[in-house]
Amino acid sequence: MENGTVSIRLIHPTNNSDIEIDAPVDILLRDIFAQLIESGFLTSGQPYEGVLKPAGTRKESVNLDNNRTVGENGIGNNDTISILITNSAG
After folding, report:
1. How far is CA 80 from the centre of its chain?
2. Beta pairing class for 62-63 and 79-85
C-alpha cells in the first residue's frame, strides 16, 4: 500500500454516531482511538478495539489489531470500522 492517507468512517460503540477521518496508513490503530478520546468522540478509560465491516470483495467482518497500522490491518479508503468496548476477563 502506498504512503498517504485513507478516509475511514468510525462508528461509536454505544450511540452509533459516526465520524469520518482521514488517517495516515502508517498510524497505529490504538493511536486513532487515543485521538478520538482526546477529541471527545470516545470516553477515556475504556479498552477499545475495532472491527472492519464487510465492503467490496470482503464478505466478513475482520477483527483489527490495535498494535498494527491502518495499512497492516488492511484498512482501505472509504472503509467502515465499528468500535467495540472490550471487557477484559479477570
Report:
1. 8
2. unpaired
Percent of the chain with pLDDT over 70: 94
Cα separation of 62 and 65, whole Å?
A: 10
Pairwise CA distance, residues 44 & 24, whole Å? 22
CB count in 10 Å sphere of residue 75: 23
Q: What pLDDT score does 2 carry?
A: 52
Q: Count Cβ atoms within 10 A of the Cβ of residue 11 and give its class: 0-12 exposed, 13-18 middle, 19 or more buried.
A: middle
Q: All 3 cell numbers of residue 86? A: 472490550
